[in-house]
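Service request form, structural biology core

Requester: graduate student, group of Dr. S.
Request type: structure prediction, single chain
Budget code: on file
Notes: please return the result as structure tokens.

Sequence provided:
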Amino acid sequence: MLLETMVIVAITQMLQIGNVDKGLVWVIMHKKIFVVTSLSLTALGISLCALIGRFWISNTVLLTFEIAFAFTNQQKLAARSETLLPSDLIFIKEPGEMLKMADQGMLLKIILGIIVLILLTVLLEKFLPIKWQNLKRFWVIRIIIIGVTILGFSNFNKINTAGSAMNDLSNWMGNKIYFWDARAAGNDNGPWLTFVNFLGSKTMEEPTGYSKQTMQKIAKKYTRTAEQINKTRKNKDINKQTLIYVLSESYSDPKRVPNMKVNQNPVPEIDEIRKNNTSGLMLSSGYGGGTANIEYGVETSWDLQLFDPSMTTPFTQVVMKSNYNSSVVDLFKRKNAIHPFLGTFYQRREAYKRFGFQTFRTTDGKDKNEKLKYQKKIQKSDLVGDNEAYKNVLWQLNKEKRGQFINLVTMQNHLPFTDKYNEYPFEASGQAVANPERKEQVKHYMQGISLTSKYTKDFLDQLDQYQRPITVVWYGDHLPGIYDGDNLNDYYVPLHETDYFIYSNKYARDHGDSVGKQTDHVQVVSPNSFTALALKQMNQKVSPFYAMMTQVTEQLPAQSRGNNDTSDGLLVDSQNKVLQEKNLTKKQKELLNDYRLVQYDNTTGKHYLKNMNFMK
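Core staff response, request fulfilled:
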């Protein structure tokens, strides 16, 4: 059992690094980690033997688990350039959908291998059985084995706790605990240990000076700021307007990808929309994935970079653990969400309830508040098209004729980027897509966003027919993870910038419910800036919190989690230049510190601001 496990751990590392020789070198250079990882998994196998009572069955269960981990980790690396993390376990609820995204050829080989393993187990159990349950006088030993294993594994989450036995073991092994780049951490420590490192996660470090008195001072400070801003804003009641957020899955203009050329423009309609309206680039924290994290930042106005690096999925690690989750949703009396896919991914259904959404319509919705009206799959795809997604928004607008907030998360351009459409007129070339398989994926992807471009224009044209003010914040969440010819470290910024625009319909433009095209402080923004920008676009008065967020948007550079060279995060100014926090002005540092304190108070702290009329 130990020998088998050592082989699997070595193979997992080879798949992690993507090279057999380097994987073997890792085993030699990190022998303490390799041995402890192998012994830990073997201990799990021995515990299974004690529990099940049959060696060969227990051995097969352990091997199947190890193989599944290695395969899943490798697939996530290919799709998102990130190792398997504890927060990914929420996807166990939807195994069918996850298997569709996997490499089908490799998956088939894995399944056939496991079938052979099961057949071999049946033969071994019949002709060479090793039955622990027959050793009745050793039942105490079996219970002790199970108990010790449970106790040992239950302490894994203390690996980041200084002074704990797990932390001491971690230091002895040479475990390099860092969270800002899970792939690099997996290359150093192995994916198994990296998975354990992320178990000991926390939300956010308490900022220096946090207290009720400090938060009262901040509340007074930005109340004055709000008063100044509101002197120039026309609209007081936001519920007389409609605000629509559209997260366009995996949308980012391929013409901006470094070292790649396209034979023709796949998105002329969106280019024209962006040219004539408030628009710019959004600095994303994800590449190839992380949709819900970007969405969380947009809706809450919180900056992922300010959270603890081990906090990888806010919907599950923050929202689900708190009874207080402030967001843009709080501004409206009527708030509805639409997602043309399953509502269980990232625990969205539960998270949205905590945000205060009154309805959430999905493909797996059951009752009248959860059933998606339009869900036709697009062409040859098994995903709902953006045209249908927009029809659901229009249906909601017709159903609720008063002002409201609508949150749409599309799904059409989600991976895998395979043969989904009827034609493929777009081609890409260059270093970024030197791999023929990637080149083919980009071709399929570009046809998808070409349809998105057309459907988006049609959607906005229809919004212009409504005789009420409607504002749309439209943004891509991350680039697709298909440009592997570009080194992620060398081109980190352009590979983490997506497109956005803010559009006011004709009625809003004609009736003073729009300030028109904004040109200042919009070139490069963070996801947390969108609500402040939207409120300005809507000529809407702001609360002290959104007054602070207006200053954050206008005075601070865009922020995101950085690459594996630093844990300090990434700052990018309006000229697309990378900055460091130490180079910020004194006023900028003070603003950033205020923002950090507010984010801590709302997500992790004692919620002092909740009762100070600060947030809304």
